[in-house]
Amino acid sequence: MVRCLGRVLLMLFLTILPFARGTFVGFNIGTQVSSLPAASDIVLILKNNQISHVRLYDADAHILKALSNSGIDVVVGVTNEEVLGIGQSPSTAASWVNKNVVPYLPSTNITAIAVGSEVLTTIPNAAPILVPAMNNLNKALVASNLNFLVKISSPQSMDIIPRPFPPSTATFNSSLNSTIYQMLQFLKNTNSSFMLNAYPYYGYTQGNGIFPIDYALFRPLTPVKQIVDPNTLSHYKSMFEAMVDAAYYSIDSMNFSGIPITVTETGWPWLGGTTEPDATVENAETFNNNLISRVLNGSGPPSQVNVPMNTYIYELFNEDERPGPVSEKNWGVIFTNGTAVYPLSSTGASLGATNSSGQFCIAKPGSDQDKLQAGLNWACGQGQVNCAAIQSGQPCYTPNTLENHASYAYNDYYQRMHSAGGTCDFQGTAIITTSDPSYGTCAFTGSSNATMNSTLPSIANSPVSPQSGCPASTSTSYLRILSLCATLFGFLTLLRRPF
Ligand SMILES: *[C@@H]1O[C@H](CO)[C@@H](O)[C@H](O)[C@H]1NC(C)=O
Ligand SMILES: *[C@@H]1O[C@H](CO)[C@@H](O)[C@H](O)[C@H]1NC(C)=O
Ligand SMILES: *[C@@H]1O[C@H](CO)[C@@H](O)[C@H](O)[C@H]1NC(C)=O
Ligand SMILES: *[C@@H]1O[C@H](CO)[C@@H](O)[C@H](O)[C@H]1NC(C)=O
Ligand SMILES: *[C@@H]1O[C@H](CO)[C@@H](O)[C@H](O)[C@H]1NC(C)=O
Ligand SMILES: *[C@@H]1O[C@H](CO)[C@@H](O)[C@H](O)[C@H]1NC(C)=O
Ligand SMILES: *[C@@H]1O[C@H](CO)[C@@H](O)[C@H](O)[C@H]1NC(C)=O
Ligand SMILES: *[C@@H]1O[C@H](CO)[C@@H](O)[C@H](O)[C@H]1NC(C)=O
Ligand SMILES: *[C@@H]1O[C@H](CO)[C@@H](O)[C@H](O)[C@H]1NC(C)=O
Ligand SMILES: *[C@@H]1O[C@H](CO)[C@@H](O)[C@H](O)[C@H]1NC(C)=O
């Protein structure tokens, strides 16, 4: 469960408030990535995978800006380096909030500030200023009247609970008593959640064979291997639930109740070195898929069945620049080109619902902008795509990016034409995905939610102006498309600024 020290230096953030929306699974976005996509491409990847919640480890201005009007909820992070100054000075806290939170709301939906990353175990000397830092930030939010929108918490490692099993007897490390007591009081007063980083991967690999791997991977346990708390007789079907429950019982032992837990990090590496045999694609795929179905089922752990275990998976991209063992660089679920490392499916609405019968054609992240624009022009022109949905004011207009509009148009073309030989290529700027790219009220063609209305004007073989990609004919049946072309060219000029 001990994260490598290297991680702590960079990964500083997190949180979420569990009751504001329904149950969700989100993703951490660490950025120690050699080929980190542009912020607009990161948002495109999030959209394409229907990711609704993300946690950043800092408050990167480009990413926060790109997330505006995306409908994605964001947890921003105060880094461990920043905690000290903020804890010592209310004005430093106010500047932090004024620089990193206030300018982005409401278009970027910042829902929480995660103060530091595992501060109590990685920089225990900073414990005395942690809650003062949280308080100072909260006062700054109150001053801006944002404290009802933005919650403050501080992600802690499972290591602050020295003996997590059986859950019913778990308590926090008593030498942290006074800090944790103050923190729980703060969370209670501000209606915030307790942020927990809980890694069955480490619980299993450092458990010296005490626990079966099926328990760590949410797989069914044979009758002889049932994991039962001897005091409560609760059956624990997964180590993940037992960890979350250990934290609930630890909070309970401090005489606090009604503070929900948000899991700010969990996950499983898909590749490891020779001494890390459990870091495999199969295990990572099993863990994360089972985790997603368990969380989206909506029920909590045995002691808190009515409180959803909202969770952020660690992590979106492989962070190849992280120091440490091979596994440290391979926790990601999506390559930076947008391809899944392994398939993630889910039965829930909040994440990547994969329809095995469905294939979608979308813009490939990182594509040349001129080629994308040409592809979009062609699709909405000669390709006969009904591009009404990506016009200003229509459901698929925001995010107002070339990538998003091209995705919509490419996919519509592909859904209608692939049975007749149409391909998903567009000069190499398109890519097939099995995740339904629909979001909010924007239904992509071929989505189980979309009605495949065949209202195409019949303009087969219409002449096409070679420069614009728009039909050259002016016969009435083309008028709608011509005006769409004009509109598209209008807003595409705006889009050509560098993102
Ligand atoms: C912002 O996030 C909060 C909490 O998840 C949610 O209640 C609210 O609807 C979101 N607002 C927008 C504009 O998405
Ligand atoms: C409790 O925390 C203290 C201070 O961080 C640490 O020295 C000690 O090892 C911890 N105890 C256990 C059992 O983890
Ligand atoms: C922990 O701290 C609180 C508040 O300071 C105090 O009331 C309580 O007795 C302490 N508990 C232990 C076990 O030290
Ligand atoms: C916290 O919740 C209570 C009870 O629902 C409410 O009265 C109070 O205004 C909330 N405070 C904040 C800061 O959200
Ligand atoms: C919690 O409450 C019980 C009963 O009132 C008391 O004995 C115990 O010391 C309290 N624990 C803490 C940590 O305050
Ligand atoms: C959710 O998962 C829990 C634990 O595995 C199980 O007991 C419960 O029946 C599930 N609920 C639903 C609605 O599937
Ligand atoms: C995406 O990147 C991965 C890893 O570099 C590679 O294996 C895969 O083939 C790439 N996919 C596409 C479609 O380029
Ligand atoms: C998958 O797609 C098929 C055909 O479009 C549809 O009938 C089915 O309901 C979809 N399944 C899900 C889970 O969306
Ligand atoms: C499909 O519609 C259902 C019910 O209206 C909604 O909950 C779900 O989010 C929609 N899915 C997509 C991919 O838009
Ligand atoms: C599909 O066509 C029907 C009838 O022509 C119309 O009522 C409906 O709004 C259309 N749906 C979409 C998604 O365009």
What does this structure look like?
By secondary structure, the chain is an alpha/beta fold. It has two domains: 2-351, Alpha-Beta Barrel (TIM Barrel); 360-463, Methane Monooxygenase Hydroxylase, Chain G, domain 1 (Up-down Bundle), CATH 1.20.58. The protein is 32% helix and 10% strand. It contains 15 helices and 13 strands. It has helices spanning 5-10, 39-48, 61-66, 80-88, 90-100, 119-122, 127-143, 177-189, 200-205, 213-216, 239-253, 281-296, 369-380, 402-417, 479-495; strands spanning 25-29, 53-56, 73-78, 109-115, 151-153, 156-157, 194-197, 227-228, 235-236, 261-266, 311-313, 360-363, 430-433. The protein has a nine-stranded parallel sheet with strand order 5-4-3-2-1-11-10-7-6. Helix 4 crosses helix 7 (127-143), helix 7 (127-143) packs parallel to helix 8 and helix 13 (369-380) crosses helix 14. The longest helix has 17 residues, at 127-143. The relative contact order is 0.12. The chain binds 2-acetamido-2-deoxy-beta-D-glucopyranose (10 copies). One 2-acetamido-2-deoxy-beta-D-glucopyranose is lined by residues 147-148, 190-191.
The amount of helix comes to 25-40%
Which class best fits the helix and strand makeup?
alpha/beta
Any idea what the shape is? globular
CATH topology call of the largest domain: TIM Barrel
Radius of gyration, whole Å? 24 Å
Write the layout of secondary structure elements.
Layout lengths: L4 H6 L14 E5 L9 H10 L4 E4 L4 H6 L6 E6 L1 H9 L1 H11 L8 E7 L3 H4 L4 H17 L7 E3 L2 E2 L19 H13 L4 E4 L2 H6 L7 H4 L10 E2 L6 E2 L2 H15 L7 E6 L14 H16 L14 E3 L46 E4 L5 H12 L21 H16 L12 E4 L45 H17 L4
Parallel strand pairs: 1-2, 1-11, 2-3, 3-4, 4-5, 6-7, 7-10, 10-11
Antiparallel strand pairs: 8-9, 12-13
Bound molecules: 2-acetamido-2-deoxy-beta-D-glucopyranose (10 copies).
